[in-house]
Amino acid sequence: MSTTTTMLLALLLHCFCVTTAELPAGPGGGIGEGRPYFDDVSPRNVTAVVGQAAVLRCRAKQIGNRTVSWMRKRDLHILTSHIFTYTGDARFSVLHPEPSDDWDLKVDYVQPRDAGVYECQINTEPKINMAVYLSVEDESHTPAPQPPVRFPAAAATIWGSQDVYVKKGSTISLTCSVNVHSSPPSSASVLWYHGSTVIDFDSPRGGISLETEKTEGGTTSKLLVTKAALTDSGNYTCVPNNAHPASVSVHVLNGEHPAAMQTSNSAALTAPLSAIIIITAACR
After folding, report:
1. Model pTM score
2. What percent of the chain has pLDDT over 90?
3. Smallest Cα–Cα separation from 219: which of 243, 193, 188?
4. How confident is residue 273, by pLDDT bands cut at 50, 70 and 90?
5. CATH code of 71's domain
6. pLDDT, position 87
7. What is the pLDDT of residue 257?
8. Confidence of residue 282 (pLDDT cuts 50, 70, 90)
9. Which of 173 and 1 is assigned the larger pLDDT?
10. Which of 72, 80, 101, 274 maximizes the CB count within 10 A of its CB?
């Protein structure tokens, strides 16, 4: 074989190797194997009923040290990254049983506002994503979703009085304690309801936040609603996933204290003061 022929074959072999190395990965393996891809076997359209749970499935293959995230398309809000949740709405969580390739998004107590497109993403360069559409049905004969009925013997407790009075424009602060030793603290979660509706921490109203502390003794959840409006009045319920719920009534006042607040402090003074007046008069 001549020197020219040998050089030509070497050049062709080099071009073939460079070309195949740049081909993208695919679920079929072989050329390009090793790059992340979605195992597209799950439904792209998911239907859920108001008040029930929805699971949006995502199977990511060969991700290596890359991260799988879920994003809500309508507001570009990152909901989860890896196994961590990046939203104040406790209804959202990621299901990733080790060592599977599943990175499913779970939405508890689905509400009509949850309908829309969600994207499962892998942080490659460029980023790759898979869209899943969630549709929500509101059955006309189904009553409004209520907190679950079956609970263990433990019960939640909301600190303070059963009736909470705040002035318009101030902050509503409610603290719920759940002292449960039967389950790991990391598995405990708390939802808050205003009436029969789950409180949306990402709602256009804004000014709603949740502080949760988990210890070996139980879970403490603190709900803060700033700039209280008259429409924020009503029943607030703390609903743990491992205990009975607890409720309080919140009354937002338009600058006036109710009679109940005044008498709660003055009633204890009224009787002794009357007795003092009578005794003083008798001594004269």
Report:
1. 0.46
2. 26
3. 188
4. very low
5. 2.60.40.10
6. 80
7. 56
8. very low
9. 173
10. 80
Q: Are strands 68-72 and 128-137 parallel, antiparallel or unpaired?
A: unpaired
Q: Look at residue 262 and tell me if it is in a domain.
A: no
242-251 per-position pLDDT tens digit: 778 889 999 9
Identity (one letter) of the amino acid at 164? Answer: V
Query: What's the per-residue H, E or C state across the chain?
Result: CCHHHHHHHHHHHHHHHHHHHCCCCCCCCCCCCCCCEECCCCCCEEEEECCCCEEECCEEECCCCCCEEEEECCCCEEEEECCEECCCCCCEEEECCCCCCECEEEECCCCHHHCEEEEEEECCCCCEEEEEEEEEECCCCCCCCCCCCCCCCCEEEECCCCEEEEECCCCEEEEEEECCCCCCHHHCCEEEEECCEECCCCCCCCCEEEEEEEECCEEEEEEEECCCCHHHCEEEEEEECCCECEEEEEEEECCCCCHHHHHHHHHHHHHHHHHHHHHHHHHC
